Amino acid sequence: MNQTTRSGETEMLKLAESFSHQLGVTARRVSQLFANQYDTQCGLNPAEWRVLSVIAEQGTVSPSAVSVASDMDKVRVSRAVASLVQRGLVKQVTDTRDGRVRQLSLTRKGATAHAAAEPLTRKLEAALADGMSKADFAALRKALSLLDAQASKLGNGTEPH
Fold first, then answer.
1. Residue 17 per-residue DSSP state
2. Computed from CA positions of residues 26, 32, 33, 38, in that sequence, does the dihedral angle turn out positive or negative?
3. pTM surpassing 0.90?
4. What's the CATH fold of domain 45-123?
5. What are phi and psi of 10, to 5 degrees?
6. How far apart are the C-alpha atoms of 64 and 70, rounded to whole Å?
7. Helix, strand and coil percent figures for the chain, each rounded to 5
């Protein structure tokens, strides 16, 4: 992508200076940091952690609701749920009102695993925020929220101006 300078010359945008590249690299590094820590300290992969978190927040919930709340595709949720059920962290039952729907809830073991992993999340977030002021970190979170909303809007067919 080229940009025009004040003198009318075209300046090539370097990959390392591209916002989307910088955001992607940073997101990948942060995600990998969390994934490594969840795995080594809790025995969970990121998808499993997200599923546990959604169930802990919402109580009994369907896999479809987990997919929406976690922004994960249904296949990824299904794999994480299967693993969590097999390990005894999540209980899966058929919905009594609609036999086609499954309902998920945490087992006692799952609630314990979530409670043990939650401080790790807070610790990692605090470590990442350590290099900036509280106001800068709050501004970053707000900016990410605004950016996510705008990307969602643009992804739904709205053209950029």
1. G
2. positive
3. no
4. Arc Repressor Mutant, subunit A (1.10.10)
5. -90, 130
6. 10
7. 65, 10, 25
**Closest listed residue to residue 111, CA positions, set 53, 63, 62, 65:** 53
Query: What single DSSP character describes residue 21?
Result: H
Residue type, 101: V
137-147 pLDDT, tens digit each: 999 999 999 99
Tokens standing for residue 120: 């790790």
Distance CA 52, CA 112 (A): 11
Q: 91 φ, ψ to 5°?
A: -105, 135
Angle at alpha carbon of residue 108, lines to 107 and 110, rounded to 5°? 60
Please name the amino acid found at residue 18.
S
What is the average pLDDT across 20-33? 93
Q: Give the closest residue to 34 by CA, choosing from 112, 122, 140, 147.
A: 122
Place of tokens 């990948």: 28
